[in-house]
Each structure stands twice: as structure tokens, then as C-alpha cells.
């Protein structure tokens, strides 16, 4: 047990060393931008707009994103409320602290890495490259803004990557069945 607590102390110390939430300036502003860029409402709204305005490929991409982000949210919240690790103390991120007081694993890290994996699987390559740079920045920003520990974002990234790799094996089956249900019900395919 002593070794476990020692690892938690190292995690806490590394997390506080990366923290910029209380330090005004450019680095804090960048961290704030990236910390919010992984918000689920932002991605939900973006995927809705993409589905409305995009061609067949982008509609499919948006549907896959929303579906897998939803499955991931259920998994992450189940883990958070089972583990119940409190967020680091701090003032920034009141909405996260109020609506989601648990920090392990990081939903933002899980979501950003899932999005990057899905972009790698569906393409285009330029988008995947951008998202693979973005995903670690979101994760680091969550630590820098004081709403997660380093271990939270590492675990979140692993959860997002594993879910997408495992889930991708069933995507064709899942979405063909969803379309088979939706077409007779409402006369509409997802794409």
C-alpha cells in the first residue's frame, strides 16, 4: 500500500508542476483554449452541423463520432463514479467541478484520443494528423488548468484508444443494423 501512495504523491507533484491555472499569460490562455476544445458539447454541436452541411463522407464521420463519443461517455462516467477520485483542488473549471466532481479517468483525454483514432481509421490523413497533435494538447491542458492529475489523462487516453480499437471491430455491424431500423421507421438512413 505504501508504494501505491508514493506513486500518487509523484502523480500529484508532477501535476502541480505542470499547472498554469493560477498564472496569467499566454501559456494559461493556450491551456484554457485546449482544455475547452475537448468539451463534449462542442463536439456534439460540431458533429450536428457537419451532419447537416456535409456530404456523405462527413455525415458518416459525424455519426460515427457521436455514437462512439456517447458509448465512451457511459464508460468513463461508470469508471469515474466507481473509482470516485476527487479532482485536484483549484478554482478554474467550476462547471467540471460541479457537474463532474470525479477526475479518474479524464473524459476529455479519452474523447480526444478516441476522436484521433477514429480520424485515423476513416481519414482523411490531414485531419488525422491534426487530431493526433490536438489530442495530447487537450490532455496536457486539462492537467495545466488543474482539473486533472497526470494519471487521469494517461488513463483517459488509454480508455479512449482501447474503446475505439475494440469498438471499430463492430462498427460495420452496428451501423448496418441501425440503418436497417431507421429506414423503415422514418424513411431515413444515417448517410
Oligomerization category of the chains in this entry: single chain
Give the beta-strand count.
Answer: 0
Average residue-wise pLDDT = 87
Rounded to the nearest angstrom, the distance between the terminal CA atoms is 52 Å
The CATH topology label is Vanadium-containing Chloroperoxidase, domain 1
Question: Would you give an account of this structure?
Answer:
- This protein has 191 residues and is mainly alpha-helical.
- The protein has a single domain (2-186), classed as Vanadium-containing Chloroperoxidase, domain 1.
- 78% of the residues lie in helices and 0% in strands.
- The chain has eight helices and no strands.
- The chain has helices spanning 2-17, 26-37, 40-53, 56-83, 94-99, 107-122, 125-144, 150-186.
- Helix 4 packs antiparallel against helix 6 (107-122) and helix 7 (125-144) packs across helix 8.
- The longest helix is centred in the last third of the chain and has 37 residues, at 150-186.
- The chain is globular, with a radius of gyration of 18 Å.
- The chain starts with a helix and ends in a 5-residue tail after the last helix.
- The mean pLDDT is 87.
Amino acid at each position: 500500500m505504501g508504494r501505491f501512495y508514493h506513486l500518487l504523491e509523484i502523480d500529484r507533484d508532477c501535476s502541480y508542476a505542470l499547472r498554469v491555472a493560477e498564472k496569467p499569460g499566454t501559456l494559461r490562455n493556450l491551456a484554457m483554449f485546449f482544455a475547452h476544445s475537448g468539451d463534449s458539447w462542442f463536439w456534439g454541436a460540431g458533429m450536428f452541423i457537419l451532419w447537416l452541411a456535409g456530404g456523405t463522407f462527413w455525415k458518416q464521420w459525424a455519426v460515427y463520432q457521436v455514437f462512439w463519443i456517447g458509448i465512451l461517455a457511459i464508460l468513463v462516467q461508470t469508471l469515474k463514479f466507481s473509482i470516485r477520485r476527487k479532482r485536484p483542488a483549484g478554482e478554474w473549471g467550476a462547471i467540471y467541478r460541479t457537474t463532474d466532481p470525479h477526475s479518474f479517468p479524464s473524459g476529455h483525454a479519452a474523447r480526444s484520443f478516441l476522436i484521433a483514432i477514429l480520424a485515423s481509421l476513416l481519414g482523411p490523413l490531414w485531419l488525422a494528423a491534426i487530431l493526433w497533435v490536438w489530442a495530447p494538447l487537450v490532455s496536457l491542458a486539462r492537467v495545466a488548468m488543474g482539473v486533472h492529475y497526470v494519471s487521469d489523462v494517461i488513463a483517459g487516453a488509454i480508455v479512449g484508444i482501447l474503446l475505439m480499437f475494440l469498438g471499430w471491430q463492430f462498427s460495420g455491424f452496428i451501423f448496418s443494423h441501425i440503418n436497417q431500423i431507421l429506414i423503415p421507421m422514418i424513411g431515413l438512413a444515417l448517410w
